[in-house]
Amino acid sequence: MIINKETLKNIAHLARLDFEEKEADKMILNMNKILTWMEQLNEVNTDNVMPLIHISREINVLREDVVKPSLSHEKGLLNAPKKDSNYFRVPKVIE
Amino acid sequence: MTNYITFSAIQNDLKSGKITCKSLVEHHLSRIESKKNLNVFLSVYADEALAKAEKIDEKIKNNTQGRLAGMIIGLKDVICYENHPLQASSRILDGFVSQFSATIVERLLAEDAIIIGRQNCDEFAMGSTNENSAFGNVLNDADNSRVPGGSSGASAVAIQADLCQISIGSDTGGSVRQPASFCGVVGLKPTYSRLSRYGLAAYASSFDCIGVIGKSVEDIALIMEIVAGKDDFDSTVSSKDVPKYTQNLTFDNNKKIKIAYIKETIENDALQPEIKTAINQKIAFLREQGHTVEAVDFPLLSVILPTYYILTTAEASSNLSRYDGVKYGFRSKNAENLEQMYKKTRSEGFGKTVKERIMLGTFVLSASYYDAYYTKAQKVRRLIQEKTEEIFKEYNFILSPNAPTTAPKFGSFSEDPIQMYLADIFSVQANVVGMPAISIPCGKDNENMPIGLQIMADFFEEEKLMSFSDYLIKNS
User: Fold this and answer.
1) How far apart are CA B56 and CA B68, in angstroms?
2) How do residues A32-43 score in pLDDT, each as one tens digit?
3) CATH fold of B7-248, please?
4) Among this protein's residues, is B8 annotated catalytic?
């Protein structure tokens, strides 16, 4: 058992998710199943193997630093669930 | 109206005046209406498509039309189209309207393609059956009790049912090829970095590829020729020149080639017998033609899937952190403070599978487990890539099934996530290593469900991959 109630709670907090009890039990079950299955990788010898990080083989793609229009303020705010004329609005953070 | 297998036939009839763009759009709109039960389109841009068709008909009269005049295209709901809705089939993007178009879409529109609508898919492209959509199941048009595959399930059904000529999908682990095989159509995943990802809702960025689904290889070649290549908005795109794919579609059968198949992918008891027979027939045909087809060993086969799931869940957990209820989409009304707002928004907005993958990804990236899972998987990924490249030093293509079975019934994988993962077992290798792969139709099983053949090629060998596929479709 890699995941128990406590680790699930911690991971859920990191991921900013909440689970109700019944949902949590199912999640623990599935995650343990999947993580155990993932442990097959331990059978592969990876001594002296470098991690593969980039799949694109382009190197140092540079361009001139030219100012071009990007998404406008208005368009940026258009999809916000709550906003005023200039900002996204969220519940009060500072007391 | 005819079900046009190739776009060149459409263009001929446009030129001769037998049809117009407008009549073509009207035809597809009525097809979409009559096949509404398949649940393919989340939005249909009827008025807009008709208005655009009239303009393009004018252009055709004046002979100023683009190369895609008369091409009717559907977009999977992960591809941005300015001023049109986009939701990745998720509640969390309720009400979202794209503020720009994907580079691919810009290039299609510049050649006078008509975008007819937005297609259902698995939520954030995570799934193999299209059962993970917030908008409900998509039905396979060959048998409505079966899934269309996923995650670009609706995009494949749209081609199968002639609701559009081309669908633009995305393929992170087989999401274009596997539904193409379940629906009896053609689906191409290009080399990673061949097409711009700008404007594609991200799932796992080092795996994601935009892919093309169509009725014929030549249509896909035309789309590839137009959309591939460098983009100022995606620095990972390859700077390699884009070949004239449409001009090099003829396979030279006199030049004998070498084809490999990984032994366990075909000599495997879990493989549906009819699929095995269908693929063995193709192999026999190729040998008769004088080509070499040989079995090769690939001892890492069994670790490809777990490697894929460790890395994609990790990347997904990071990519999907942007959906927080602040900037766009859905926000829970049940929160009293900021932290609750994040948590409730995400918990109410995301579906079960997406949450599961975010949780797994967060776990494998967490401080105590990072090296054991994430770094380990990146190392194994390198080994898989190197071993695959070794095969291509000696062989031109790798043949395999697309999936262990034809399209299953709804609900087949609902209890065990690993069973669903296994549906991707043959398709993920191309994404893990970044190479191109295609699914082409390869007969039908005893219940008349389509079988797909997967062909994989070396980096940037789309040209050869497409000409070989076209040859196989037409001759075997």
Assistant:
1) 10
2) 999 999 999 999
3) Amidase signature (AS) enzymes (3.90.1300)
4) no
